[in-house]
Amino acid sequence: MKIFLRKNSALLITLLIILVFLIVSSRGMSTQDFYITVLRSLSAGSVVFLVAAGFSLIFGLLDVLNLAHGTLYMIGAYVGWTVFVRPDTFVDLLAPAFLLLSGLTLTGVLKRFTGKFTLSTTARRLISWGMIALGVALAALILSRYPIAMWDLENYTRGPVTFSFFADKEMRLPLEHLSFEKISPVLGILGLLLSSLIYASGIALLGRETRAVGKFNWRSIILFIVLLAAALLVIIFNTPLTEWLVKIDSTWLFLVAIIVAIAIGVGLGAGMETTLIRPLYNRPIYQLMLTLGLSAIGVEMVQAIWGRPGFIMPRPSIVKGSGEGCPATSLAGWLENKCATIQFFEGRIRVYDEIIIPVLGIIVLIAVWILLKRTRIGMIIRAGVQDRAMVEALGINVRRIFTLVFALGVGLATFGGILAAPSSGLNTGMGASLQTSALIALAIGGLTSYPGAALGSLLVGLVQQFIIKYGQIGIEIPFTDIIFKPSPPLVPASTVLLMVIVLLFLPGGIMGKKD
Fold this sequence. Notes:
There is one protein chain. The protein is an all-alpha fold. It has one domain (2-505). 71% of the residues lie in helices and 2% in strands. It is built from 21 helices and four strands. The strands form two sheets. The protein has a two-stranded antiparallel ribbon with strand order 1-2.
């Protein structure tokens, strides 16, 4: 017992401080306001946690501080919006995506083929990056002529803001069904497939130095055939698939949007790690500069595709009900009437914001903890954090584990983006603000500690939401008649102050490792 108390003294003291904070806060506001503020704190903390957890996993194993994490969070929100509001655009993009991915599955085969050429290191790098650039350029050229239904940034009535408004009112604007006019179907399919193969060849040639790819096996051939067949099927059944997505209940469509956003995050994370981060593992400054540059590029791309103005993300039907029986008085009543709000201590709470988001955050916390603590892959990850050389000596492909961890971390960020979008809306600054909160939470909890990321996110959420609430009701200054109301700028400043206080006493964070 003494050993447990000694090892977890910082955590226990922190939990005691949180308890005292909640007790003191409960006396300054009504019971209704207190409990609703706590629920909102859990909601805000859950979103912060999804980003901070990705930071923690990536930094803990790879020693990479991914400054593009906030931008990837934002991309997850915009991708999810596209699936949810413009299913026609999503379906039109499916076939090109499958075609571009299909070529990448043959990287192992191409690596064996390129291995027959004897090249100097400089020549290999120049040729490989030249092929990568050529593949990207060819894909961009084909996609510019490929029939993809899009919104019009120059026409407000056909822009993202208008589509979001009508989708929120469950009155979708007419969607588009385009046909191959600027390019023939055969040329489009072959062009995208060729661009993917050229790109994969560049990765394979680069992989001779960085070991970025695996060996040839039949699974890659099978996967190539499956993806190619899926692309052809999507092209053939484009219109029926689009109409089906439009007609299904928006709750199921939102679930599809979540799955796609996570998949995009995992894919982007794996691609970033294998092509950009891996050659820079021994150059931390270059890593920071690279990820910061990727963040800026990501913001510009989002602005170019979706525009600069912010817009709303419609909520799924399961949390939009407002008619008879709403607000619900119980969870059963909510499920029956799909109410947007539920009665709670004579007040109302938003089902999506204060119930669904915290529950999903807790589920992710438990799921990733089980992955890290109760599975073989988790054991390898934890061993890799402690001693990478020893894990490699055991014959384990640590580089593949690195890619998996990076992909998982980015996937958590994009999941946080689509999850927060219906609550906070979409704008190009959402990633930067959330990234700052996540870094503060990570510093408070401990940079390499996954439980610390959860604890730090909870503290950030509590401080932010209570400061916001006290900005509304005010704080009575003892022995005076003065009521102090914190201004909005104090919300981010309060979390920075909390971080400074914690780091003064615990330089490694509450649950960080001691040097």
